[in-house]
Structures are given as structure tokens and as C-alpha cells.
Design a protein that fits this description.
The protein has 65 residues and is an all-alpha fold. The protein is built from 3 helices and no strands. The N and C termini lie far apart (31 Å). The mean pLDDT is 93.
């Protein structure tokens, strides 16, 4: 999780530097301990259909603005 958070921080900085919108999906998919929330995964690593629905709904808001 620390590696993912570090990578996301770097990606966000790159997006900010280039003027792109960074969409933080990590915070939307993790539990209070920073792990992928059980309802959004099939095995603790791969995203479930519920997880993809959460991602789709989040991205949809950005695509329709």
C-alpha cells in the first residue's frame, strides 16, 4: 500500500505539472486501514464487478462535465 500511495503521489504531481486532472481512485476503493475494501475485490488484489461499478460511477462524473 505504501508503494501504491507513493506512486499515486508522483502521478498526481505529474498531472498537476502538466495541467491534467488527477482522479484518485485509491481513496475510493480502500477501507479505513488502507486495504482494498472487501466488497471491491474478488481476491484482495483484483477488482470485482462492484469495484468496477464504483470506478465507472466516479469516472462518469468527470466525463460528463
Amino acid at each position: 500500500n505504501e508503494v501504491i500511495m507513493d506512486l499515486n503521489k508522483r502521478i498526481k504531481k505529474l498531472c498537476d505539472d502538466k495541467g491534467y486532472t488527477y482522479i484518485n481512485m485509491y481513496d475510493k476503493l480502500v477501507d479505513k486501514d488502507g486495504n482494498l475494501e472487501v466488497k471491491y475485490t474478488t481476491d484482495g488484489l483484483h477488482i470485482s464487478n462492484t469495484g468496477y461499478l464504483k470506478i465507472t460511477k466516479t469516472l462518469y462524473r468527470y466525463l460528463n462535465n
